[in-house]
Amino acid sequence: MKNNRRIAILSFLLTALVSGCATPGENTTLQGFALSPGEVSIEVGDTFSFDILTKPSNAEIGDIYYALGSGEENFATLNEDGSLTALLPGSVHIYATSVNYETQSSFYSEALVNIVSSGSLIDVTNIDVNKQEQWSDVDIGENLHFEALAYPSNATIKDVEWVSSNENVGSIDEDGLFTALSHGTTSVYAIAKDGTKIRSESFDIYVRKGRDDVLVKQISVSGPTSLQVGSSAKMVANVLPAEASKKEVTWSSSNANVASIAQDGTVLALSEGTTNIIATATDGSNISSAPFTLNVVASGGLLITKITISGDTSVYTGEEVQYNATIYPMGANNKTLSWSSSNTNVATITNAGLLKALADGTTSIQAFATDGSGISSNILTVNVKTFSGGGGGESTYEGTYYNSTNLDTTGNTLLNNLRNLNKQKRRSTVGYDEMLINHGSSKSSAFYKTDYDPNNPNKLISFYSGKSVNSGLNREHVWPKSRGGNYVDNDIHMPRPTLESENGNRGNSFYVEGMNHSANGWDPAATNFGLESYRGDAARIIFYCVVADSRLSLVDKTNDQTKNNTMGKLSDLIKWHLAYPVQQREINRNDGAEDLQGNRNPFIDHPDLVCRIWGDYNSTTASLCRVA
After folding, report:
1. Which of 178, 275, 448, 581 could form a disulfide with 391 if both were Cys (CB 3.0 to 4.6 A apart)?
2. Spatial distance between the Cα atoms of 382 and 342, rounded to a whole number of angstroms
């Protein structure tokens, strides 16, 4: 055994200070320590230093005092740096005591050193452990039995000492029996007792909470769907539920000749072809993602170098929101993107960037190039929550606007009360021509007060499609002009900015669920550009128009003569109002309209008024509103 085989350590003969590292906020109070290994064999002339293992592993250890066993000074010497030098064959004991004078506590450890003649030891050079992959995840109370093989086979001393890096999580005895004690992670390894300090590879063990542990239930993979040969990109594993105790995954590629993938998710495109990328949970749940198909194509063409996405980071359940992507360079050959949502239980998103909010929670959305460049966009974290106002529930408005009128009535009485209030509050109307100037390119357009994009106030949100634009817009009569909409088209509560290419789609049809530009009605969700949640917006605008002008009224049918100044279908409008709650965009619009005209849409502020006015119109509306 070679002399001066050293691991830097600890102490002076009688006094030495060892400092430990700790994570802020963690309990670093020493609960115990041990010399490692607890027994070791060295040759005459060798100098050896012990490792110190603390419990917990980051504990602050304080002063340590060392001593040899009584009468053993002839066999070994304790050096000034705390190491031991062997003098004669025999055995000596090393005693160590840690003292904390502040807490008046002390801990004790000892180790045995066997000293043999110089040149009599054949050193251990390697240790193998019989670890098994399924052992990486165990339950509290479970036992594992490790065995170690020391090499070479003719090594003089093959004994090992077993170590658990976190004995609070799991302990391991001298026979290699591991016992899982508490939730957390520890590493197990073996260390040679022949003085070489040769260690085996460490084996990470995750101890589950048992019944309280949260296992992975779903994994989805997001990343570029196409890469060019020689390029690389990062795949992302989206693990659900969010509170899963262990979210680490292992990665695999079904065709490693086409693309390889490292365990950090970095995929390298090697040759043309197709492969499936799969992520598998490591928490013992055996959950794997669906195969994510990756196409590797030949290099060539002008590739995308950057993608930037933008849009709302806070939306409400039931809402549909359009997200936009800016692609660089503008002349890139293939600008097609694929979009992903990390939590499809919370929200889904199409490859056109249209997000549909499904449930309370958080999801991350991202866009990926499909041109083989491997470029991905920035990540937007979207918070989805249920809007407290509801479609027909509590008030969304807490101001004094309604203090002068009686809202505790029903039917025509309530409708007339709202009409009188509207006349009192509406100081003037904006004017049809002032709502939109130069097709939306002019910031003097009044719509910039009511329909601005919260994420980009220099753009307007187009009605029905939700796109953020600042040109190519005109005004949509939510109440058609030919059906009496001309009575309210100067009132900014009624017209909305829409894309010119989409404005003519509706004509002057009634709103009827499931219909698309026909004599039988029109539904914004049934078109190729409509957002389903705008059903609620449209319904509340129609209800407002009846308050704004007494010449307008509602009927529960799919069509009517234009001269009657009617709109419908009333039961579908009520259904939409209840099913698609008031959105923040409507509240923003209502506030902007009040700034411009002085009046508000009462059905945005008090959704319950709809059923109190029209709930007893017929049996269908009564059923929808649950009117007795």
Report:
1. 581
2. 10
